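Dear U.,

For the methods section draft, I wanted the exact inputs and outputs in one place so we can describe them consistently. I've listed the two proteins in the order they'll appear in the manuscript figures. Please don't edit the token lines directly; just add comments below if something needs changing.

First protein:
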Amino acid sequence: MNTIREAITRAHREEWARIVASLTRRFGDLDIAEEAAAEAFATAVQRWPTDGVPPNPGAWLTTTANRQAIDRIRRESKRDDKHRKAQVFHDDPPESLGAIDDDRLRLVFTCCHPALAMETRVALTLRMVAGLTMPEIARAFLVAESAMGQRITRAKAKIKAARIPYRVPSAEDLPARVSGVLAVLYLVFNEGYLATGPDTDPVRHELTGEAIRLTRLIRVLLPDDGEVAGLLALMLLIEARRPARVSPGGELVALGEQDRGAWNAELIAEGHRLVRERLAAGVAPGRYQILAAINAVHTSARDMRDTDWSQVLALYDQLVRLDPSPIVALNRAIAVAELDGPEVALAAVDRLEHRLAAYHAYHATRADLLRRLGRGQESRAAYDRAIDLAGNTAETAYLTRRRDQLLP
């Protein structure tokens, strides 16, 4: 029985996006595609323990899902032309699985269409492409399952009403649309890497894992896109540090205090390889590639003291030219502190106050710099503000300990 359950789980992980994408192309309806795919897997749960796992699980599930979709169309059909349309679908044999990779890419671009709100794009991608259940997605967003169900239903209705095309964008639109897809995947990853909800696990491995899996899928489908490779490398190098990020007591462990022997060497090697490949390509790097390179420097150092901070700062200087956001400037200031001292870095951080006053990491960074300068009272006030704004339980515990270590 465990073998059957594992086979169904593996098939769901490997085939869900293929099946939903194939059904969406064939029937032109995300709702029908999602329901039929779910019913096909439910049928597998019922039948495979008795009949055994079919030789080609993906083909079996695709055929079953197609039949479920046609049955639904027939049930809902009130006009002869719809019935004839269903008959045509029924008589048309399913394509081989190898032919629908482009369908998966179309599905991703549909779910990440800019006409949808960013939060909706994330939820729809998790449901339609990753195959997460409604309760899983609702937990990720810390909302009721019914509310999440309504959100996804409205998104699918909007796609149908607005006639959002089920296709890969044209050549001139592709770069901007790919960046939108990557932004969705990065949001999914970041919510898992540092969960914002106070009543959830501080690190959500199921979300970081799904983000990496979906980025791998995009990498297969768009193998020459440098930013796709960069985002995958970035995720892998951050995920590699996950085993050392939270202490047994549930407190966030800062990069300098982590047990580097606990880092995942296999993920680091893969991330470094992707970074080297992009450097060898000789093409000007994008934002994700530079962030990946910064993380490659950090994960190359055996100890925090061995970090090549001059290289980190040079990469941040390059990143600032592409992304002059206050958060990038804040992270650059941390490298400045290691090279030029906390006083120079604090001056740079203080210039960001009007833009980052509501951002907990701004106050946490400022608190640490003030601590290093021996300005305990000001540091304590900055820690208090960071604790008030932080939503992650492990991070709150870390900041509280650092504050409480300050001398009166």
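Second protein (the one for the lower panel):
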Amino acid sequence: MSVSRPPASPLLWVPTGYFTMALGYVMLTSVTAIMFKNLGMDNGRAAQYSSMLILAYTIKPLFAPFVEMYRTKKFFVLCAQVMIGLGFAGVGLAMALPGYMLFLMGIFFALSFVGATQDIASDGVYVTSLDSRAQSLYCGIQSLSWNIGPIVASGGMVYLSGLLHTRVFGHDAAVFGPDWIDAWRVIFFLVGGMTLLMALWHARVMPDGARAENTPTSVGEGGRILLDAFVTLFQKRGIWRMIAFAFLFRLSIGFLEKIGPFFMVDPVSKGGLGLSNELLGIIYGTYGLAAVLLGSLLGGLYVAKRGLKATLFVLCCAVNIPNATFLLMAVYQPADLYLIGAGVVVEKFFFGFGAVGFMIYLMQQLAPGKYSTTHYAFGTGVMGLCGLVTGVVSGYLQEWLGYVSYFVFVMVATIPSFVATWYAPFHHEEAPAGGGAPGKAVAA
């Protein structure tokens, strides 16, 4: 008689599951922008093409209910990870073909939907396999593991691409063009292999995940649930001001996200700082992301101590005002790596410190109600839409304005963030200090 194995410890699959999610997401939506830039694409198209890959993650609430209708959540996680691993390997192969860019964009666009499905299914495994106490216990590990993904992708892989380009393939780091194909093919083969290894690991240790109570049993029922979720969302008091907040809070960051790395690697003659990929990976993808993690930790403690309503505008200032560091660097174009690193760390630290207010606001003010998970996903989708829109136009604006004038524009773009934050409604009591579920509605 076969004996069923006890479930594996969450420590065996929570860290690797969320790391794998983040690795694919950052490779698709951030690292591709650097790759396009290296391959000789202008800032406008490089920012546009990589930003378009955010679309699937923005609209994933629309197809999330249907993922749970068939098989298990683990099945979808494994299928997604195998497809992502093979897809990245396919990117490496496609780059050897003439006219490869059309193939690349087709594969990337398909992988973005597969990646969004992986996110939905992985979150589902986490929520349905762990009770509320375990979810709270592993929440920090979950967040830390996800944030290791950007460090590996934006830091490690970008650094390695520069190292391969110059020291292995013997090309000039300052020249953008087809010579970069060799290095980036290796990177995509490597990331594809890592993702396939994670799929094999999760096949062994990840639980199946239970079906949620409101899982639809048919496409028609799923559509009705989605419709009801959107109807109830727009019936909430102050919903349009909440949506404005969700879209505008990180508006200036959306304009800065793609252009910041371009500014770092563009030559001094074009107004940039002339950094290599290796230095970009170290400064922007490692020290910068470490500063985000530290800022997020301290920002969370600050909100827990003072309360969100009392601190939200301060958090908005923290997100937006330090963007001025890029304006200063564009004006003076420092060559000192310590000054450049300090500028990036300051901006990233305060972004991490202030950005926690956005997520807490969505949890406590937008999400509460019958469809809290769907409404929270809608809020993060609106944030993603902001990143998509700003990313698509940012490169073209920068080319038109030049770096100094563009970073002045970024500072002007902070004004809508301040207005939306000032008028953001608070209709629910805040969660008690130390965490907890969103509070009850406050009487009008």
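Candidate sentences for the figure legend, describing the second protein: The radius of gyration is 22 Å. The CA atoms of residues 136 and 440 lie 20 Å apart.

Thanks,
Y.
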